[in-house]
Amino acid sequence: MSIHIAAPEGAIAPRVLLPGDPLRAKFIAENYLDDAKKYNDVRGMYGFTGTYKGIPVTVQGTGMGMPSHAIYVHELINSYGVKTLVRVGSCGSLQPEVKIRDVVMGLSASTNSSMVPQRFNGMSFAPTADWQLVSKAAERAAELGLNLKCGNILSSDTFYDEDPDIWKLWAKYGVMAVEMEAAALYTLAARFGVKALCLLTVSDSLVTKEVTTSEEREKTFTQMMELALETVIRVEG
Ligand code: HPA
User: Fold this and answer.
1) Residues 149, 144: Cα–Cα separation, whole Å
2) Taking the domains of the chain in order of start, what are their residue ranges?
């Protein structure tokens, strides 16, 4: 038991996938895992554990934004001994070559949030993905024929900005896409010595203003999920 997760000891696997949307957690458990069992519905933030190719895997919703995400990540690591965390989410493209439906891997996560500098007395830390997860995902993506876009992403505290063009500053520095959680995930993983990775599907483009249809999102989502699952089972738990 932890404050926000009502799971008995042993109910959560060492390998965890982290969608923001708890209903996505349910969908993943029902469609990708065998023998999935729900262990949490506190605040409607569903968590399920099942197996993928015989290996136990948990999928836990985290909500939107870094404060919510960080609560679940902290408790998964410190109360349940989780060792490998892969966020599976969506993002907005900041670059013309990052297209709708592409799958993006965040090698590093810049942020406009105070959550990270607050830990470092105002200094800047570089939240970075785990190399083992990065290399396994890149290898597997090549085998699956998936054109994975890899680079720096932006973890933003805001979805609606006062200045609608503020994203262009990050784009000028090559930041590929914007989402709202990875910088907190990578920072906590570094702090507690565990592995983390963020995989994203491009759901909209700030460059072209395109948005995806739900059908299109579904197809890309399937590719990202396959990659996430194939990656987590290739690292030690
Ligand atoms: N901004 C922030 N997070 C997002 C976006 C976006 O445009 N699209 C999907 N997640």
Assistant:
1) 14
2) 15-232
